[in-house]
């Protein structure tokens, strides 16, 4: 079997007496567009944070292109482009300064870093905000500059925590097109999202996370099993769907 680009094996994480991630294993095939879905608090962000080396697991291993994220972090992270949840950015820089600075930190030559920054700002429609400090960016602009930062060094695997959250529809189309191109040139994308339609349109593989465990994972069509992803998700997490319920004071 081909070595997966991302291999998560028996990952566990507890916060106090709460088990956030409970023995999660996933194989993300090279060239796949992999979606992670699940209800609020299911453990998606915790899993992705451990997968990219931002949060130390209690147990389990993660390999990126065969490199252990925790034993060989520098090599593993050079392959990774990450858009984390609640990304902390240097706030007192403009978008261009931020990208150029990060590019230099990642070892790009000044001219290469500046050229890539310009290109990414233009593609993501942030060039107009060139003189705006990141602290004054809107939520969607922060998401886009975070995505640009994830792409800057030319990673082979992108791990994106809710990349479309708060992004306007036009920018979302741009980001989708860019991610599809990234896949077309041999990249791999893992993203989490609550928008089932987006996951169904973009992803060829999907994992449903529920209460810290994988409820289902595999090719999209196999996981959907003839239903929509939304229907499967509701079924897999056993949601008590009573759509007639409302607070009594609202309906009286
Ligand atoms: N730093 C933390 N300290 C304590 N508990 C945490 C921490 N981070 C996450 N948790 C808990 O771990 C569980 C999983 O959270 P996580 O953020 O991974 O879920 P999620 O699937 O990403 O949720 P959402 O879709 O709402 O973003 C939740 O019960 C959450 O309260």
Automatic annotation (TrEMBL):
InterPro entries given for it? AAA+_ATPase, ABC_transporter-like_ATP-bd, ABC_transporter_ATP-binding, P-loop_NTPase
Q: Which Pfam families match?
A: ABC_tran
Q: How does it sit in the membrane?
A: Peripheral membrane protein
Q: Which GO terms describe its molecular function?
A: ATP binding
**UniProt-listed PANTHER family:** ABC TRANSPORTER ATP-BINDING PROTEIN, DOXORUBICIN RESISTANCE ATP-BINDING PROTEIN DRRA
Instruction: Could you list this entry's UniProt keywords, alphabetically sorted.
Output: Antibiotic resistance, ATP-binding, Nucleotide-binding, Transport
Q: Where is the ABC transporter domain?
A: 6-236
What is the protein's species of origin? Catellatospora aurea
Cellular location(s): Cell membrane
- What protein does this entry describe? ABC transporter ATP-binding protein
């Amino acid at each position: 079997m081909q070595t997966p680009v991302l291999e998560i094996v028996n990952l566990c994480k507890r916060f106090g007496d709460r088990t956030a991630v409970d023995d999660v294993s996933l194989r993300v095939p090279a060239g796949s567009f992999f979606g992670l879905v699940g209800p609020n608090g299911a453990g998606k962000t915790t899993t992705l944070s451990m997968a990219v080396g931002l949060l130390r697991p209690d147990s389990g291993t993660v390999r990126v292109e065969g490199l252990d994220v925790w034993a060989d972090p520098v090599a593993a992270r050079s392959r990774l482009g990450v858009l984390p949840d609640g990304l902390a950015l240097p706030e007192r820089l403009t978008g261009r300064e931020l990208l150029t600075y990060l590019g230099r930190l990642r070892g790009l030559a000044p001219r290469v870093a500046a050229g890539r920054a310009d290109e990414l700002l233009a593609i993501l429609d942030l060039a107009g905000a060139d003189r705006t400090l990141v602290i004054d960016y809107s939520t969607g602009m922060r998401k886009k500059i975070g995505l640009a930062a994830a792409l800057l060094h030319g990673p082979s695997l992108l791990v994106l925590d809710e990349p479309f959250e708060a992004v306007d529809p036009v920018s979302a189309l741009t980001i989708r097109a860019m991610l599809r191109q990234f896949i077309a040139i041999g990249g791999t994308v893992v993203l989490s999202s609550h928008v089932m339609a987006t996951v169904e349109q973009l992803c060829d593989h999907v994992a449903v996370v529920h209460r810290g465990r994988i409820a289902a994972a595999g090719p999209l069509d196999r996981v959907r099993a003839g239903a929509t992803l939304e229907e499967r998700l509701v079924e897999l997490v056993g949601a008590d769907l009573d759509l007639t319920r409302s607070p009594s004071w609202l309906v009286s």
